[in-house]
Amino acid sequence: MMTSPQEKVISFSEVTKIYRRPGLLKKTETPALRGLSLELERGEIAGLLGLNGAGKTTIMKLLTGLLFPDAGDISVFGLPPSDVASKKRIGFLPELPYFYPYATAPEALMFYAGLSGLSGAAARKRVDAVIEKVGLKTHAAKKAAEFSKGMMQRLGVAQAIVHDPELLILDEPVSGLDPLAIHEIRELISQLNDEGKTVFLSSHSISELEKITDRVFIMVQGRLAKTVARAEWESTRGGLEEIFVQTVKTGNV
Fold first, then answer.
1. pTM reported for the whole predicted model
2. Are 213 and 200 in contact (CB under 8 A)?
3. Among 222, 230, 232, which residue's Cα sits nearest to residue 253?
4. In terms of Cα–Cα distance, which of 42, 57, 83, 66 is closest to 166?
5. Cβ–Cβ under 8 Å, residues 32 and 18
C-alpha cells in the first residue's frame, strides 16, 4: 500500500502528553509534550533534536502506540498509531534494543518475521536478505551475547526492516557507538532512504543530524521550538549547532 501524494506519513496536531505519578498526598504531573504539531513528508529523513527531557522519546512511543496522548490527534499514514494497518507499515528501533542473548541473528529475525506475519521459506529468504543488507552475514552463527554494540545496532535495524516497512522510526540509532560504527549505521540509513523508506530519527548528535537529515525539529521543554531545513543550517555560520544553541537559549517556542 503506497502513500498518496496528499497523505502525510506522520501528523501530530496539538498533541499533549502528561506523565502522572502517584505521590504521598497527590499525584505529580509532568508535561512531556505541550500542544505539539508537526508533519513528516514521504521519502524524507527528518530528525528530532533536543536536550534530555525535551520530549523526543515520548514522540517515538506515541508514534508506535506504546503511549497514548492526553489531548490532540496523531496519525501515521492517515491512521491512528494503534491501528494494526499502520503498525504493519512501521519499523521501530528503540534506543536500547534487546535480543535473547543465546539466539543467533537468523533465529532472532525469524522470531520478528513471524510477528510480522511472515513464515516458512518466505520468512527465511527475507531474513537472509536483511542479514546481508545490514552487514551481519559473516556473524550469522554468533549468539547475540557475543555481539559488539555496533553489531547489536545492526541487528536492531534488521528487526526494524525485516517486514519491509515504509516508515522507519529510530530512537538514538548511533548512541554509544564508536566512529566507525556510526559511519556504517549512517550509510545504512541513507541506503534505506534511497530505497524509498521515510526515516524519522532522534539523536543527541548534532553533527550526525547535519550529515543525514533533510529537516530537523528542535524540541524545547515539550514544545516544537523550530523546524530547520538543510538549506538554512548550511547557510548559517556555525551550522545546525548554532541554530540549536540559540533556540534553546531563547526558549523560542
1. 0.90
2. no
3. 222
4. 42
5. yes
pLDDT surpassing 50 at residue 4: no
- Give me the helices (H) in the chain, please: 56-63, 84-87, 105-115, 120-133, 149-161, 179-194, 206-212, 230-234, 239-250
pLDDT of residue 7: 64
Domains of the chain by residue range? 90-164
User: Could you tell me which residues come within 8 angstroms of residue 70 by beta carbon, excluding any fewer than 6 positions away?
Assistant: 16, 17, 18
Q: Are strands 45-50 and 198-202 parallel, antiparallel or unpaired?
A: parallel
Residue with cell 557475543: 146
**What are the grid coordinates assigned to 110, written together?**
525469524
Q: How many CA atoms lie within 13 A of 245 on its CB side?
A: 8
Question: What is the four-CA torsion angle of 124, 127, 131, 133, rounded to 10 degrees?
Answer: 120
The number of CA neighbours under 13 Å toward the Cβ of 201 is 31
Average pLDDT score over residue span 25-49: 92
